[in-house]
Every structure is written in C-alpha cells, then in structure tokens.
Amino acid sequence: MSEMQQDSRALLAYQNKRFMESWSARGLRILSEYLEPLDRLGRYKVRDTIVFFGSARITEDGPMNKYYNEAREVARMLTQWSDELEPPTRRFAVCTGGGPGIMEAANRGAHDAGGISIGFNIGLPFEQHANPYLTPELNFEFHYFFMRKFWFAYLAKALIVFPGGFGTLDEMTELLTLMQTEKLEKPMMILLYGSEYWKEILNIDALVKRGMISERDLNLFRYTDEPKATLTTLKLFLTANYLQPEQVRHADDLPDIAHSRI
Question: How far apart are CA 187 and CA 237, in angstroms?
C-alpha cells in the first residue's frame, strides 16, 4: 500500500474524535460511563461499596473539622474490618465522590488502613478536584451526573451521610426515594451522621405531620453520632444481610457486579 493510500484511509468511527464528541454520539458516551467503570471495578474484584457523602467544604482545620476527623476514622475502621473478610472479592470498599472535604476524609481513612479507596468524581466549575487518597486505578471521572449517581446506587450496601449542602441533600434524597419506592432490590442502610446537624436542617417530622411521607418512611434511615457505634451498626447490618454463612459458603458462586441489580 502506497503512502498516499495509507493517508487516505478513513478513520474508524470510534477513533473519530470529532464524531465521538458530537451530539450524535451522546448515547455512546453515556454507555461508556457504564461499561468502562464496570470493566475497571471488575478487574479489581470490587463487589460492593459503602458510600460516604458530605460537604466538600468541611476541612481538616476548619470550624467543622470534627466531622472530617470522624469520617476518616469510620472509613479507617470499616476498611480494616472489611479487609479481614475472605477473598476472592473485595467487600464493602469505601467509596466517595472523589473530591475534597468529607470525601477526602473518607478516602484518607481507607488509605490509612491500607485498603482500596474509590472515587466517583465529576467535573465541576468549582470545588471538585480529585483528592490524593484515591487508589489511582479506581479514580473515576464522570461527565454525566446521572451516570455517577447510578454507580453510587449500583454498588452501595450502605450510605453514611455527613453534614453537607445541596449536593449532599440531592444524593441522599435520591437514594431515599429509590428505597421508598422499592426500586432498590437489595437491603440498604442509610445513616445520617451528626444528629444535631441533620435535625436542624431537615424537619422530617413535619413531612410526616403534613402527610407528605408516611410514618414508616422514618425507618428508611437512622441517626448516628460516633465512629465506633457507627461501625458496630454497619457490621450488624452487613453481616445479617450479606455475610451469613449460607450466602458465602461457595465463593465461586458469588455474583459479580455485572449481574447485580439496582
């Protein structure tokens, strides 16, 4: 083949950057944010996660640093416990939005314990940058908010919600809605860390009083205030629902994440 013939060859569609970034290829870009994380998480044998939500504005040396330090401690103890579980799959890995603040604290705690640390990051005009405590191969960057939220819900067995603002409220209420409407086909625990903060911010009792939610919806979450008690609550829930002997007797029979359902 001559040099001129080589130069005139058409690009394969998936190698055509202009096309891949165009409106016409939007469906492919969305699909890639499902398939690429699925492949990477599978190679790392990540079966499920414990998700930490909370403000990017809570820093180690700021006025609410108590929550930073306690998120770090909960993540450290959780990782230490989960790493003692038998292989071949990694259970209950710490997962965050990958950014600063509470996200950094939780990833840092997992890193302190020598475990893997997952971040589902997203490009934002401010605040959001990847923290340095993520396992490099498990540092994900999303363009689409809804695909990022999908991955939070898809793998999570529990959610710990530290004090936060609009983003934290958005993520928390979306998962509460999925649980309320029974769209999550798995047991899941939601812990609101910092009862004083959350009871000031959210008047849940008023929602019940005015008939906007039912009284049984109060069972969708619980408050927690201390790292050791939080770990104990998580261990009891995870053991009862996911670590019973009959469920883990044959490791080869465990489903991988490609076959799990939200």
Answer: 9
